[in-house]
Amino acid sequence: MPRLIFLGAPGAGKGTQAKLTADLCSIPHISTGDILRAAVANQTPLGIQAKSYMDRGDLVPDQLVVALIQERLNNADAQDGWILDGFPRNVLQAEFLDSLLNQIEQPYDYVVNLEVPDDVLASRMLERGRTDDTEEVIHNRLKVYREQTSPLIDFYTKRKKLAVVDGNQLVEKVTMDLKKLI
Ligand code: AMP
Questions:
Q1: pLDDT above 70 coverage of the chain, percent
Q2: pLDDT attached to residue 2
Q3: Topology of the domain comprising 3-181
Q4: Active site includes 159?
Q5: Which of 32, 142, 152 has most ligand 1 atoms within 8 Å of its beta carbon, as the pocket-test mutant?
Q6: What is the enclosing helix (H) or strand (E) of 31?
Q7: Which sequence spans correspond to the domains of the chain?
Q8: How far apart are CA 71 and CA 43, in angstroms?
Q9: Would the CB of 11 count as within 6 Å of ligand 1?
């Protein structure tokens, strides 16, 4: 079963497509954003530490997210394929992931970058109406993406692992393109 990493700016439809693709392949959809939101809702120690960063649209400190992903990838259900959505978010996390996957002998197959133009991203985020989707926070999340996450496009291109999918199409068409890729 495939091991895939989904990249893409906030609002690119990464969560929707990662979930659809994971269901299609019957593998877990591992979204650090979903896990963190659940932790915030349940007021766990992780959630309490992560909340203020998330409310601002900043990245949660690496050591918290890295511990979370390490634990999640050790789960029994994650031993035969998965889709990572929202992790890694910067070069340090990507380097950590490389060494973790090496260590547990679970190499990823490739990294999917869902490409969507900037103006479409902001309007999509405003439409979904999440509590961390106010205009100011959206602006910051896009800035954080450009500064910290977009260098990963280069990181994975250099490793010859990047697959680009046009995310600016109907949801069904994007899903079809992803299916072809797998
Ligand atoms: P997402 O649902 O992927 O857009 O994530 C929502 C929020 O969770 C982000 O704005 C970050 O504050 C936090 N978050 C999710 N994944 C990560 C990560 N890999 N590293 C740091 N913060 C993250």
A1: 100
A2: 93
A3: Rossmann fold (3.40.50)
A4: no
A5: 32
A6: strand 29-31
A7: 3-181
A8: 19
A9: no
